[in-house]
Amino acid sequence: MFIRAYLRASTSEQDASRAKGDLEQLASQHGCKIAATYTENESGTTLKRPELMRLLGDAHDGDVLLVEQVDRLSRLSDDDWSILKGMLADKSIKVVALDLPTSHMFLAQQQQDAFTGAMLKAINGMLLDMLAAIARKDYEDRRRRQRQGIDKAAAEGKYKGRQPDMEKRQRVMDLLKAGHSRREVERLTGASHGLVQKVATLMGD
Q1: How confident is the model over 92-114, as pLDDT tens digits?
Q2: Protein fold of 3-137
């Protein structure tokens, strides 16, 4: 059994690796070590996450996918969550989350009897579904409140829209002019693929 830690943040301004120490501590408490870590800055509302897909591709049957919170793994719609669960089930990958104590049994060295193990697995699956649903609802609620705030500000003539980060755009442009590849520019500046592509298009690249 390999333990594969998955660390995610939504934007490049957030530190996706922030929880790495907490996950290492949890594994250590159960006499385990993390074999591989996958880190990315992508939205949890989509399955188009390169590092998550790489983790699933690398995983062996029975491996553990370790996350800080269930919402780091999923803020997916019901349909996409079902797809992800199917991908996990295909390799019998066990999800362990720091905020889901019932899942910690998958790190335990001692074995439960068959009945206890089956019951805990069923309970853990139910709670995982519940937390994934809560994570999605939280996302939708925040988006709705944000939209309401924007509409109110627009009605009052106060909303000017999201202002571009001109300093970051200039760094992207300078690096592109210096001959760096787009992938290198993304890594060096923390800019999104879309932003680098937009700047490159404006430059006629």
Answers
A1: 999 999 999 999 989 875 566 77
A2: Rossmann fold (3.40.50)
